[in-house]
Amino acid sequence: MTKTTKGRQWRSLDKDLKRISQLEYAAQYTSRPLVGMGIALAFIVIAALVAAIFFGSTPTSFVVVMAAAFGAYMAINIGANDVANNMGPAVGANALTMGGAIAIAAIFESAGAMLAGGDVVSTISKGIIDPSGFSEVRVFVWAMMAALISSALWVNLATWIGAPVSTTHSVVGGVMGAGIAAAGFAAVNWPTMGKIAASWVISPVLGGVIAALFLAFIKVKIVYQDDKIAAAKRWVPVLVGIMAAAFGTYLAIKGFKRIIKIDLVTALMIGALVGGAAYAISAPLIAKQARGLENRTKSLKTLFGLPLIFSAAMLSFAHGANDVANAVGPLAAIVHAESVGDFAAKVPIPVWVMVIGAFGITFGLVLFGPKLIRMVGSQITKLNPMRAYCVALSAAITVIVASWLGLPVSSTHIAVGGVFGVGFYREWHMERRLRNNVAKRPDAKRLGAEERRRRKLVRRSHFMTIVAAWVITVPAAAILSSVIFFILNSVVG
Fold first, then answer.
1. 162: pLDDT strictly greater than 50
2. What's the whole-model pTM score?
3. Which of 82, 90, 173, 375 lies in disulfide reach of 312, CB 3.0 to 4.6 Å?
4. How confident is the model at residue 94 (pLDDT cuts 50, 70, 90)?
5. Structural domain tally of the chain?
6. Percentage of the residues of the chain whose pLDDT score is greater than 90
7. Helices 460-487 + 137-161 axis angle, to 10
8. Does residue 14 fall inside a structural domain?
């Protein structure tokens, strides 16, 4: 055999091996979603088995096992969709890697759910439905089951299309739709529904306004100062103290309710003490970190990095403490109804049910969360540590204001509204600077309408998709829930 023939054979072999390796890479790429779905399915099966262990000897165990499976499915979807709102800004600002964000969120979401998650939850979703309107326990159980299934399906669909929606509002819509189907329109507490509808507007607008105001404050007091580093050493600890005060107040109201009930005034005092301590601790640390930094805007981003990570972690803790009930509330209602043969507006949540919620949120975040994290963090508008910190700060403060006003707000709407607020403020600020430049220099080149549209800093397509998803969440979940209730009640019941 000649050298030429051997060379051709080796080249052919190399090409074949390259094709095989490309096929392997393609197979790995296409199988990734299947791996995630496989793990999620395994968790759902395990949740059902856990329920079977606790209720295996009762004649109604099948209903509880089915509810546990759908509760696990709902928790996975909350992790895939809702958690992105807390971690998205930090990832988009490059303060955290995707892996770091997922690890922190998984730890603090689970800790919030297990340590500070309320042991008594309004399983009828904040008084949406009057339990006395149900004719019998079985009807109530199928209503809660329908609410659980419909809200999980809706959040799953929203995650698939890339829209961060409110899981709270999904559950509210599901409970409302099932309640209407089971007991008629009179069973719905319409004043409460009116408050929730108002929160659709108030939550994002308030979050956006507060975020924009803090960004304007940072620009005036720090970015536009001659000595940026000295201004940062003065004001960054103040902003850290405000954040700590907000979280201290929130946790005093929500986190310790299992031990002691704290009124808003006392919670504000606790928050003020926590904020003062955070200021005293952070001031020397920020001063030390600022040594040797150049007097330019890019250096300021370094000083906001660590506070942003802490704020993202605390937002995850607060979210786990508050929103795990969306997954396990209806499940707890079903477990209670099947255990005692009666239903109530408020029931204790068993530990095993809380564990399903906490682990489900973690699995959903790890397996399916990166898509929404990227969308919230970088695809709506460009974020840096300062802008992302304003979003986190507005989220914490808005929750406190909403609690004071008694409004059932959505953490999703607040956080995403904060991102929009920062983006729209940047657009307004850019337009203002362009107008000032034209006023100072009349001969300066004016931008055409097409170029102005191209320079918009908030993606209008994402804005319209998200707002549309927010508007239709409650009615879509309600309609889906009513259909599922009729199917369950007629086929299974």
1. yes
2. 0.80
3. 90
4. confident
5. 1
6. 11
7. 150
8. no
